[in-house]
Amino acid sequence: MLNYYPIKKSWQIVKWLGFLIVYLAASGTLEVAGDYANNQFVAHHMLGIALIVTAIALSLIAWRYGQQLSAANPRHFGRTRVTSQRIMQLLVIFILMVAFQMMWSYLISKHILIIPNNQKAVEADQLKLPLWNAIFSVVLAPIFEELIFRGIFMNYFFNRDNRLNNVLAVLISGLLFGFAHELNFDINWLMYSGLGCFLSYTYMHFRDIRYNIALHFLNNFISMI
């Protein structure tokens, strides 16, 4: 019994990383399709494969999230009634998140920070398949990332509804989100982690993953225009 807990948590880490790899594989197939953008025949076939892989990956991850909530859901995550008060709260968080990014952009414009490698990669992909990469970045990526970094992560780890677990869930989920977007432990990593904490707090506050997906969607949409 003493050895059961570390084995269980180690297995959960492996499974969580597996879902992350599934997501990266789905996004990777779209990148491969973009590499053949000059060859329409190959690009169309690769794009078809990418769409199939993405649909399977998203279905698997969403199914697993639902299974987790059915098995153990002490925080009572689920669908909550959308009210004008909740929408206003979400807008306040969104405004704070935009202000945070405006400060980040200002630091980059003043050459205090460099442009993150993740942003460079996103901009490069946009030039290859603009429409499909825009759809993936604005619509699909938020769903994938919120299910993995908020939904599944918080169900596997810190799955107790008390102050310490809730705070740790928000912070560590945010830090992992930052590391997934910036591999160097620098200021840009902290900035991405800050965005992740906004999203984690939204999930914990509303107890409904639709709100942080919507916030993530709005954030990526504003970044694209």
UniProtKB/TrEMBL annotation:
It comes from Lentilactobacillus parafarraginis F0439. This is CAAX amino terminal protease family protein. The chain crosses the membrane at residues 12-30, 42-66, 87-109, 129-152, 164-181, 187-206. One of its GO terms (molecular function) is endopeptidase activity. PANTHER family: CAAX AMINO TERMINAL PROTEASE FAMILY PROTEIN (PTHR36435:SF1), SLR1288 PROTEIN (PTHR36435). Belongs to the UPF0177 family. Residues 130-222 form the CAAX prenyl protease 2/Lysostaphin resistance protein A-like domain. GO terms for biological process: CAAX-box protein maturation; proteolysis. Keywords: Hydrolase, Membrane, Protease, Transmembrane, Transmembrane helix. It comes from the Bacteria. The keyword Flavoprotein does not apply.
